[in-house]
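Preliminary data (for renewal application), magnesium ion complex.
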Amino acid sequence: MKEVILIKNGELSLKGLNRRSFEDMLTANLRRRLSPLSPFNFYRSQSTITAEPLDENVDFDAVVQRVGKVFGIAAFSRAAAVKKDFSVILDFAPRYLENSLKEASTFKVEAKRSDKKFPYNSPQICAALGERILNEFPHLKVDVRQPELTVTVEVRDRYAFIHENQIKGAGGLPAGSSGKAALLISGGIDSPVAGWMMAKRGLKLTGIHFASPPYTSPRAEQKVHALLGKVAEYSGNITLFTVPFTVIQEEIQDNCPESLFTIIMRRMMMRISSVIAAQEDCGALITGESVGQVASQTLQALACTDDAASLPVFRPLIGMDKDDVVSISRQIETFDISVLPYDDCCTVFTPKHPRIKPKLESVIRAESGLETDALLEEAVKGVKVDIIK
Ligand code: ATP
Ligand code: MG
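Predicted structure:
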């Protein structure tokens, strides 16, 4: 017996003609995510991808955990692959699923026979295996409507597969299948969640972080690396651009009215990010902004921010409550990192009384004291690049 993963590829099945290239991408992403555990062979047929480890001693719990974080998978099963022999199936299934059968109180057997040459049809497989299980586990009752445990036998071209209830996958679309976007990542709670949400929609991510040493510490940057490391478990590798922001912030402080510091700083972030993103072939920027959360996230402030970006700005959290964002951040394990107390460049330079409804004309006027182009060029030149795995 060997164990494999059977993957049902969710929303992919809706994608018609693109399906093949989506499946190629999903398979490549799976191969990359699983390769530290073992080399894998992948087989595809009838909207199922079978992932078969070549290393017999692979840690299968770790495999399951990793597959559960790959976008583009609606559900998957950890299955035993056995010889397509009726008595082997009947003998083996109760042993393979022994623990679950002991714990459950109701069950049913489901059979799928895609190999029509197999001499027993689905009802015959269900009846014989059901009877065998009832004999060996007399406490069980059959419940065909809402069983606690569904024992499934799938007779396919190379093997018969035996598995129990499917495991819910991460959903979404394979990372990279919708293109690429640049995530503006701070050390906060919101931006890693925003990145995760867009990666789920099939975007490959590039990270951009603005650092203001010595006002911000190297630990704040390490925090960003750690956060992206968590997101990368879902999205795949992320190239991170760390932009030196100190000079720009000091220039803003020296040349612009204090009430507009934040909005002008955010506009500089958008300009610089647009340049880096375009160089990296990204089609959009992603931020963790949400309407009304802070002074820089009023409609007027968001409009001023957008005006400085030369790419579309995706804000997946725009209509979400903080509680909902927090619950996603716990689920993807970024929360505990985000709440570590290192100052971000925004917090260091926060004005006491920020303008809540800035007018674009007055912001543009207030910016006129800045050498915007020169500052931008300098910042882009000083960028540090890391690959986050
Ligand atoms: P977060 O929790 O993501 O830090 P926030 O609620 O603190 O967000 P702001 O500080 O106003 O909100 O930032 C809004 C968005 O701007 C962030 O979600 C992020 O996308 C971007 N951003 C803020 N600071 C930085 C930074 N230092 N580097 C890169 N992007 C940043
Ligand atoms: Mg922040």
